[in-house]
Write a structure and sequence with these properties.
Layout lengths: L10 H4 L5 E9 L5 H19 L6 E3 L3 E3 L3 H18 L3 E5 L15 E3 L1 H4 L2 H14 L13
């Protein structure tokens, strides 16, 4: 479900069911030609379809973060956004990117980071990661996006 499909009056009623936020990261830098930007967005969209379609009714997709800056400040920005989204009421925060440059980044405030590396496992592999994430309590142990 897209964020724009939820009316203000519905949020409190739906919040217990829509416990997971999907936050896409495109990974653009501004150096891309129009066709490269299009390609990046299409890859991300295709990967997101593997999540949005089977898990509609539990996941809310937020607007993508398209441009990234220097690695350290970028990671800090993403972590800040994740924390704020949890403060709004989401129990689980899943980041997703089809950009291989982000494969080794660690986002401590996210419960799961589906990178381009994980996307190679296809729909079934991604579904397994999400369901494992949900099987954990929201604040238990370390996030599933831990390096190593």
């Amino acid at each position: 479900m897209k964020f724009s499909e939820i009316e203000k009056e519905q949020w409190e009623e739906l919040k217990p069911y829509l416990d997971t936020c999907l936050l896409p990261i495109t990974g653009l830098t501004g150096d891309e030609t129009p066709w490269q930007a299009t390609d990046a967005l299409e890859k991300l969209r295709d990967t997101m379809d593997w999540i949005e379609i089977p898990y509609k009714g539990r996941i809310v997709t937020y607007p993508a973060l398209h441009y990234m800056g220097e690695a350290e400040s970028f990671v800090e920005q993403i972590n800040t956004v994740c924390k704020k989204l949890k403060d709004v009421g989401f129990h689980y925060l899943i980041l997703i990117s089809a950009d291989p440059r982000l494969n080794d980044h660690y986002f401590e405030e996210a419960d799961l980071f589906i990178s381009a590396k994980e996307a190679k496992n296809g729909r079934g592999g991604i579904g397994q990661l999400i369901e494992t994430c949900w099987a954990r309590t929201p604040d238990s142990e370390k996030p599933m996006n831990e390096k190593g």
